[in-house]
């Protein structure tokens, strides 16, 4: 699985960065940065981040084979 953020929806609220700081961060300009790939140990935090996004801009996509 990979993380995908819809940049058209995302308004950089940062709730995902609070829920899953290993995968999501706000840079010095307040813009969301994220890592598409993640370790399975972080899946619960990432699911919390998805649930916390007020604009539902975060999705999980299967890895392309």
TrEMBL record:
Its cofactor is [3Fe-4S] cluster. Pfam families: Fer4_15. InterPro entries: 3Fe4S_ferredoxin (IPR001080), Fe-S_cluster_ET (IPR051269). Keywords: 3Fe-4S, Electron transport, Iron, Iron-sulfur, Metal-binding, Transport. The keyword Ribonucleoprotein does not apply. PANTHER family: FERREDOXIN. Ferredoxins are iron-sulfur proteins that transfer electrons in a wide variety of metabolic reactions. This is Ferredoxin. It comes from Streptomyces badius.
């Amino acid at each position: 699985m990979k993380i995908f953020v819809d940049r058209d929806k995302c308004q950089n609220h940062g709730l995902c960065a609070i829920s899953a700081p290993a995968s999501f961060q706000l840079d010095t300009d307040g813009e969301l940065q994220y890592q598409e790939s993640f370790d399975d140990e972080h899946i619960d935090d990432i699911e919390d981040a998805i649930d916390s996004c007020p604009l539902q801009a975060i999705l999980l996509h299967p890895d392309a084979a």
